[in-house]
Amino acid sequence: MGFLQHPLCRHSQQQQQKSYDHYHSESSTSSSLHSQPSLPSVPSLSSLTPQQPHHLQQQPQTTVKIHSSPISSLVLDGKLLYSAASSGEVKTCSRDPFILQTNTTTNTNVVVVETTNAPIKSLIVFHDTLFTAHQDHKIRVWKTDQPTKCIATLPTLHDRFSKLFSSKNYVEVRRHKKRTWVHHVDAVSTLALSHDGSLLYSASWDRTFKIWRTSDFKCLESVKNAHEDAINSLVLSNDGAVYTGSADTKIKMWKKREGEKKHSLVATLEKHKSAVNALALSADGSVLYSGACDRSILVWERDENDDNNMVVVGALRGHTKAILCLVVMADLVCSGSADNSVRVWRKEIEKGYSCLAVLEGHRRPVKCLAMAVDSNSGGPDEDDRSYLVYSAGLDCDIKVWQIRVPSVSL
């Protein structure tokens, strides 16, 4: 099955509906991933321009070819790398680049974890459980016992049946058509898991996000009309805040107010002028990064006067096309783009960021990233640190990059 067009850089729900009518071709991919004008009103935080060379390694350590269709999600768990593709397959292999390099042609360490007929948009791994979000509006839950088995499809039969007989459980999904509120009615674009693994959050092109209890997979809450267009990204903060990024150009912050059982909108962050495709949070939740079709990564920091608000402090610029994915680890931010490249940024001790490396090698847009400390080359507390960056996208390749981060001179 082909790779269904993503509502990137599009703004109207009518245009989004057209994506059901055709799959990606070379030309449609290019047109759907084009970039919008940048944001001249937001100051740049990065100290290096794209033309300035940098001494860090910029060639992939290895390239892994285990999928024949575009890759939508990468997850690191233990010693394994999980990858999900638009074909509906999830595969796993060793995360060790040396093992990958040795077996890159034979794929002897690759295991097909699951196969479905529905393209996968997002993947989460928690202990021995996998959660996959699909183009067919469903979420599937898998146990990784051998052989892997699907233990639930959300919404569950029990959830659907229990909502059938009361009119208050129905919401209008389009003219003259209603569904119960536990259903997503468009592609499920992204998943997030609470820190303790007890709650699963899902967001969809249907403009809603939902919250599921993982003990019995019951849908506890659905926030309808959360945005005016497709929701492309959702991230969680440890303080309970939920951030959603949408094709309507907005980022929204949601929380449960004291004494309330449901999430409510507490802030709307409006600086992007085109579709927001990716969000990432710092470990302490104080910094939010957002990537959009305007080619900029905006950096938001917690408002000193209001814990329920974030203020933009600047932008990271250098990509020449839409930002499609972000990942944060320690003081590093990695961004993947429709310009086929990955950039690595470091937050400096004082205000500002430096662009450490431009990773070029992909032949098509970079759709997903994962990052880990390079265990073979020291840890994050040493002066000279080394990280492994895993990237994948529409060219069906997984690339592994070693990033050496020089010590900071105080």
Automatic annotation (TrEMBL):
Record key words, sorted:
WD repeat
Q: Does the keyword Glycosyltransferase apply?
A: no
Q: Which Pfam families match?
A: WD40
CDD domains registered for this protein in UniProt = WD40
PANTHER family, per this entry? F-BOX AND WD40 DOMAIN PROTEIN (PTHR22844), F3I6.5 PROTEIN (PTHR22844:SF387)
Task: Write down what this protein is called.
Answer: Uncharacterized protein
Which ranges are annotated Low complexity under compositional bias?
A: 26-63
UniProt-annotated stretches for the region Disordered: 1-63
Q: Does the UniProt entry include the keyword Amino-acid biosynthesis?
A: no
WD-type repeats, residues: 181-222, 224-264, 269-310, 316-345
| Organism for this UniProt entry | Phaseolus vulgaris (Kidney bean)
Q: Which residue windows are coiled coil?
A: none
